Amino acid sequence: MAGRKTEGAAAQFRLPRLRLSPLLFALAALSIGYLAFSTSRYVIRSHQLHHDRAAIERDIASLENHRSSLQAIREYLQSDEYLEQVARRELGLVRPGETLVIVSSSDPSPTPTSTPRAPDAPRASWWKELYGVP
């Protein structure tokens, strides 16, 4: 029992005293860092959402313009004016009392000319050249 201390000496044994100010400073720095990190994430996400919203609004405006032009085309295609234009141009129809006039060109129609073949191209059979068979 020589290595043991007495009861009175054991009562005197104390834990080392920690300073409170560095601990509070570290805790405050951690809290501020966390708040800065979460706030910056919120700001970045808010900016991304604002950018996405602007892009979607531009897309909506473009689609509305396209829709209105398609509606105008549909209304024109359903109109009597379009039907009359197709009947006159494609079908050659005229209204009662009108005279159909067909204008032809005064220039003679061009005649097909033979195209000269390249000197190194193989010569086709004489009968193919005579009858114009490719």
Structural commentary:
- This protein has helices spanning 7-12, 20-77, 80-89, 126-131.
- The chain contains four helices and no strands.
- The protein has 134 residues and is mainly α.
- The model has no long low-confidence stretch (mean pLDDT 80).
- 60% of the residues lie in helices and 0% in strands.
Low-confidence stretches: none
Task: Report the structural category.
Answer: mainly alpha
Tell me the number of helical segments per DSSP (H or I, 4 or more residues long): 4
For the residues shown, what is the average pLDDT? 80
Provide the helix percentage: 55-70%
Distance between the termini: 125 Å
Give the beta-strand count: 0
Using only CA atoms, what is the Rg? 48 Å
What is the string of SSEs from the N terminus onward? HHHH
Largest beta-sheet details: none
Strand content: under 5%
Question: What is the 3D shape?
Answer: elongated
Key structural traits:
elongated, single chain, mainly alpha, 4 helices, 134 residues
In short:
By secondary structure, the protein is mostly helical. Helix content is 60%, strand content 0%.
Topology:
Elements: H1 7-12, H2 20-77, H3 80-89, H4 126-131
